[in-house]
Amino acid sequence: MFLDDFIRMCFDGFEQGWHERNGGNLSYRMKDEDVEAVKDKLHDTGRHYDMNFSAPELKGAYFTITGSGKYMRNVPLAPEKNIGIIRIDDAGTGYDILWGLEDGAKPTSEIPTHLMNHIARMKATDGACRVIYHAHPANITALTYTLPPEAKAYTRVLWQSETECAVVFPEGVGVVDWMVPGSIDIGIETAKLITKYRAVVWTFHGIFGSGVDFDETFGLVHTIEKAAEIYLKAKSAGIVRTITDDEFKALADAFGVTLNPEFLG
Ligand code: 2HA
Ligand code: ZN
Known about the structure:
Elements: H1 2-15, E1 25-29, H2 32-37, E2 48-50, E3 62-66, H3 79-82, E4 83-88, E5 94-100, H4 111-124, E6 131-135, H5 138-143, H6 151-161, H7 165-168, E7 174-176, H8 184-194, E8 199-202, E9 206-211, H9 214-237, H10 245-255
Parallel strand pairs: 7-8
Antiparallel strand pairs: 1-3, 1-6, 2-5, 3-4, 4-5, 6-9, 8-9
Bound molecules: Dihydroxyacetone and zinc ion.
């Protein structure tokens, strides 16, 4: 059941140390069968909120989403208080809370970036992408203090830090330089990049990852975080050699993937 998978991912991220306090958030664009599976839980709570931006692409879409100020650690203990199900209204400018987010809770403060990313990834994947995840992994965040905020710099360092990285994210990763979180503007900038890259790093903050399901999305962020950890360890020990571009080309041939040519050479 999608709700069990959603709840498990919240706690998995906490166990990885990616969700201090209320850090991080998760949203899932529900399938018709998911809506059907929980239809007995859904009801008009009379709680309608404006999004402060227009998302005609999402009219009538249902999302499961974590709550603002809620701790990922607490999601399994009381899902109905810490997460909720919303439906984007028919105008595409607001949403109704249909389940959960009890005691007056609202969806995550990062809802603009979540919804804008969903629109971008829906378009990029012909509707296959359903999960948007924001986390605060320590090594990815530490990495942002060591590199210029450029996709090429991040992608090369991450690809070079673990052989399978280039296979897991052959398109590379995007980077948004520091901006005020929770804003419409950071949503717009992130969504521009997530069209091209499934993961976008937020400088001095964390990362947004996307995917068709919870496993793929969690696995992507996990892979990037581990690569960042390896890079930082290698850098502190002293890097004397790394994976070459010829080796990347051999890897791409062997695994049948096309590496983003902007990041080779
Ligand atoms: O507190 O992670 O970016 C939730 C966040 C804001
Ligand atoms: Zn955050």
